[in-house]
Amino acid sequence: LYVLTGLGPDDHVYGLGMKTGRLDRRDQGYVMWNSDTFGAHEAKDPVYASIPFYLLTDASGAGVRGVFVDDPSDVIVDFGRTYAGKSFFSTANGQAGFYLFRAPRLRGVMADYQALTGTFPLPPAWALGYHQSAHTYFPAARVLEIAKTFRDKDIPCDALYLDIIHQDDYKPFTWNRQYFPDPPAMIRQLHDLGFRVLTIIDPGIKVDEDYRVFEEGREKGFFLRTDDGKLYANNIWPGYSAFPDFLQEKCRWWWAGWHDAYLRQGVDAFKNDMSEPATFNKTWSMLYHDEQTKMPGFLEEGTLDSNVVSRSREFGAVPPRVFHNAYGLYESLATWRAQEAYDDRRPFVLMRNTAASGQKSTYVWTGDTNSDWASLRLSLQMLLSLNLSGFPVSGADNGGFGGRCSAELYQRWTEFSAFSPFFRTHYYYVEQCLDKEPWAYGPEVEKVIARYIRLRYRLLPYFYTAAWRAREERAPLLRPMFYDWESAPPAYAAVDQYLWGPDFLVAPVLEPGAKGRFVWLPPGTWYDFWTGQQWTSMGESRYIQAPLDTIPVWVRAGRIVPTMTTGR
């Protein structure tokens, strides 16, 4: 399937979810292929998630178009990179479909797209608070030490994460009894301190005849197999591992049932990881090269082999190239279902890879970013793009995941994250990386970090209401300036600032050493959030002072901002 359309000289292109590069996709091209990309940078493509939906503004004033390619395989999209003045998408999947949308404004196309693919469910209130995580906290005494330090310092925090070392030999649904001898007792103590506990679940199931999950899955035929019917296995965290066939409805119910033991022990929610699906071995190499367009190909390694087949009553025999981008989506459906079946609390599933409609069963983070200024800037672009693609509740690892984050970067990133939909610090827990707890950089930095975490909780009533409005209106939660000012050319250039909900204008400082920045103030009256000073603008840019402990924030005139006076 190959579709070529016109592209006006002044048209803008947005969307595609978690993609690198400029927010405006004009003159860029991308491949939809979920990939485990540690330290993704501005020029890296593909990355973790693939959402083949994009918006095209029409400079002639004829309205806004939207295109959704309903295909979980390796779709290619191009917006003038190959052919000047032309955009196209192509796919090798003969069963792909596509939808076209048109409306006078961006909000109309976005609402129609979400009416088709679904809207995100309201998260539990605690999910919008502050979360702390590392790769990984252990043993149990260390986890409790972190929790008690938060409480001793009166720094609000709602959730702590247990990453892969909580497991026995990296096997999902198990505990490492050396580090965590009594998980229910530890979780009770964390609950008593007011924390929710989340555990990681990866899809790699260790090939081990003494491992009940493997034996049961093999017996029931719930693992992927090769095209000649043999059990497929590849290397991932537990070693040689099988992979659940999530396209099977019965497999998803079986997978959901394995979460019950965690839930009975008190685990509150889950993080799914490595579900691109990723492997450690260099496996098959797929070179996608379109002779018609001369698009550069890409080489993908570290995923399922090309001879793997999913076999389900629902879809029949499907090769990995076709179901690749939907693999994590189907896993998240099972994880979501596990929580729904267990009790009446709102589920929460965090995942870095997904596909269109995944917003119905997962909240997204942008994967393993580097701890550098370029990654901070890229994170903002990714979150705006995810919001324009139907994934409002999304966030980046605060301070970056890998590398040595400077004190200045940690403060600036925290200021930004406090005004992001999902606020979690998560970092690589090894010697070459610095710790990233709020107190890790000393008392002066701690004051700034704690100030913004507390501010997050003070503003939770507004943030939660903004999330509810975004769901009801099928609108972004993190809104680029042009979403509200489509007829103002400066709004399309102001991509390093945004609206949080309809009322807060946020302009994070994204450069090292900066003590201020230029901000485009849209037409109207605005109030400085920190000083209460009134600003009346005709739509001009102004230089705003921003010391290291301050992020420029304004509130629209005439709006009521509900707040809380307590922390948790």
- Percent helix, as a range, is 25-40%
Principal-axis shape equals globular
- Beta strand count: 32
Rg is 23 Å
Structural class: alpha+beta
With strands numbered from the N-terminus, the spatial order across the biggest sheet is 23-22-21-16-11-10-9-24
> Could you tell me the strand content as a percent range?
15-25%
Spans where pLDDT lies below 50 across 5 or more residues: 283-300
**Main beta sheet strand tally, sense and closure:** 8 strands, parallel
What's the mean pLDDT score? 92
Distance between the terminal alpha carbons, to the nearest Å? Answer: 52 Å
Count of helix runs: 14
Keywords for this entry:
alpha+beta; 23% strand
Describe the protein's architecture and organization:
With about 575 residues, the chain is an alpha+beta fold. The protein contains 14 helices and 32 strands. The protein has an 8-stranded parallel beta sheet. Strands 25-26-27-32-29-30 form a 6-stranded antiparallel beta sheet. A hairpin with a 3-residue loop joins strand 26 (about 500) and strand 27 (about 505). Helix 10 runs parallel beside helix 11 (about 445-460).
